[in-house]
Amino acid sequence: MHRTLALGLTAFFLASPTIAAERTVTLAVDNMTCVTCPYIVEQALSAVPGVTDVEVSFESATAVVTFDDAAADPAALMAATTNAGFPSRPVSGSEG
């Protein structure tokens, strides 16, 4: 009986989809020197699988990114901006 229950529970958890959560992180973005730079940063972040929303501010040199944490993470977001020529880092306390 216990073995059957254990196998049933194992099958249930393996068949269940991973519970993903929507997260938002604010990135401080370097090297944005002109008004077209935010567009490039936005495009780079939007191309990351799992990203659902991006707002880039030239004035504050930040990007606020909403993403599915089952498909993306801050490291992938930072890699995307860095590969586009705009290194970034999370603003302290910005993850939610």
From TrEMBL:
Start and end residues of each HMA domain: 23-89
The keyword Metal-binding is annotated on this UniProt entry: yes
Cleavable signal peptide: 1-20
Gene3D superfamilies to which the protein is assigned, alphabetical: 3.30.70.100
Assigned keywords, A-Z: Metal-binding, Plasmid, Signal
Protein's recorded name: Cation transporter
Species this protein is from: Jiella pelagia
